[in-house]
Design brief:
Length: about 475
């Protein structure tokens, strides 16, 4: 193929709407974990549009370098679409055909790639000036939104935007409303974990989604948990019980039910539910993590004098946290929980190794780094009894400007250490140095507020720059 023809083919490919043009990056997610979840969804979420899952599996297979398996997954997607009864089958085929075009291009089968490009262009031309054009756009936005939602992490905000575009065109679509409610729930939950507050409010979207789709028990479970978080556990419990009557064996519902009952202090009930779910999806890192949390809670409720039970629960927690990171390699929270549990078991070398491993994971966010260093500081302070190392990691948290709860906790813990130092050894300058560091941080916050009000004041900007430079060296 000549360069001119290949460039022309590339230009046409880049105009297609599909997984290859929606800007996903291999380095940003755990492919094996995503594939495991996709296979579980195919097996246990019968309401899910399975052609969508096979399209995603085609893309992950391509990322792993297995183009033949990718083609097989697209063939499965096509077979499933062929079996559906819909008046807009061609519209639903557009994304699959676009993925075919890209895969054949990457397999150097250029004539086949060109053939699928032509099929997509024919579909677009057929509907571009017809009443069904909005349906074509809705399908595109919806497929992109679900793909982004499935890949988690930093893609949640983009998924939200795609769902919003789709819902403008089809506001009463039950599936789109469910997807939008899920993404709003996740965004709100992420904020609450990091900042203890959120600009996102998911409860009204969850209620609307439940109204539009009474059979979606996962949405009911999320609504139940949100009611619980708002102090309305009784209402949440009724919804959860109803969902469990509808799909008592769904591992996706069971994991949320277990979280609900754990939050209510019913730890043994939660463990029973989680193990039932684990029997169906044994490679779920999330389920192992939740079971580990339950055993950690049981351990906390025991006095160390109850040595046998305390040790048994510690060992169970470690086992499940180890399984969690084995099955889900970028699971930051599970690594931190595992490292701190090693500390409780006096396995300090393993704890150190685990903290170092999680710090070396690629694509950590600044919030991830704050959470890791905060966990590391607590381990050093409470288990390893190294105050100097604890101080070092608290400072690492604080030097990252994101105002998460981990930063606030680190500030408070440093202040307590400083005051204890001064009270215990007034002649030791360590405590005073720490207080100076903390007050310097407060001063930076005030200067930043001043800059917001007077952004062009060079003196303030210069002073702020000097303070930040000084803080990084303190």
């Amino acid at each position: 193929m000549s360069d001119v023809v290949e460039n022309s083919l590339q230009n046409h490919l880049l105009k297609l709407e599909c997984h290859f043009t929606w800007t996903f990056f291999k380095e940003e997610f755990d492919i094996d974990n995503i594939e495991e979840r996709l296979h579980d969804q195919i097996a246990f979420l019968p309401s899910t549009h399975r052609h969508r899952l096979h399209n995603l599996l085609a893309y992950t297979s391509y990322l792993k370098g297995d183009n033949q398996e990718a083609i097989r997954q697209l063939q499965k997607a096509e077979e499933l679409l062929q079996g559906t009864q819909t008046a807009h089958l061609d519209i639903k085929r557009a994304v699959t055909y676009s993925n075919y075009a890209w895969l054949y291009y990457h397999s150097n089968q250029f004539s086949k790639a060109q053939s699928y490009i032509e099929r997509v262009e024919a579909i677009c031309k057929k509907f571009e000036s017809s009443p069904e054009h909005d349906i074509l756009l809705t399908e595109r936005y919806g497929e992109q939104a679900w793909a982004l939602l499935t890949l988690y992490g930093k893609y949640c905000e983009r998924a939200k935007e795609c769902f919003e575009k789709a819902l403008v065109l089809d506001p009463d679509n039950p599936e789109l409303n469910s997807g939008y409610a899920i993404v709003m729930y996740r965004l709100e939950s992420q904020d609450l974990i990091l900042y203890e507050t959120s600009k996102y409010k998911s409860i009204e979207f969850l209620k609307r989604a439940v109204t539009l789709n009474e059979n979606d028990t996962v949405i009911k479970a999320l609504l139940s948990l949100r009611y619980q978080s708002l102090g309305q556990a009784e209402e949440g419990g009724k919804i959860m019980e109803e969902a469990l009557r509808q799909t008592p064996d769904s591992p996706y519902l069971l994991r949320y039910a277990a979280k609900f009952y754990r939050n209510e202090g019913k730890i043994d009930v939660a463990i029973t539910i989680l193990k039932k779910a684990l029997n169906q999806t044994p490679a779920s890192g999330s389920l192992h993590h939740q079971i580990g949390i339950c055993y950690r809670e049981k351990m906390k409720s025991l006095m160390k004098s109850a040595r046998n039970a305390y040790t048994r629960n510690t060992e169970e927690a470690i086992f499940h946290f180890e399984k969690a990171v084995e099955h889900k390699q970028f699971f930051v929270e599970a690594y931190i929980d595992l490292a701190r549990m090693y500390g409780r078991a006096n396995q300090f070398d393993k704890a150190e190794d685990t903290f170092q491993k999680v710090l070396s994971l690629r694509n950590l966010t600044w919030e991830d780094k704050q959470e890791i260093h905060f966990g590391y500081a607590l381990f050093q302070q409470q288990a390893a009894r190294s105050e100097s190392e604890a101080i070092r990691h608290y400072k690492e948290v604080i030097r990252i400007p994101n105002k998460t709860k981990f930063r606030a906790f680190s500030n408070n813990n440093l202040k307590q250490l400083a005051e204890q130092n001064i009270k215990k050894t007034p002649s030791d300058p360590t405590g005073f140095r720490l207080l100076g560091f903390i007050h310097q941080l407060d001063a930076i916050d005030y200067y930043e507020k001043s800059v917001e009000l007077d952004p062009d004041n060079k003196d303030i900007l210069s002073a702020l720059s000097c303070m930040k430079c000084s803080l990084s060296k303190a």
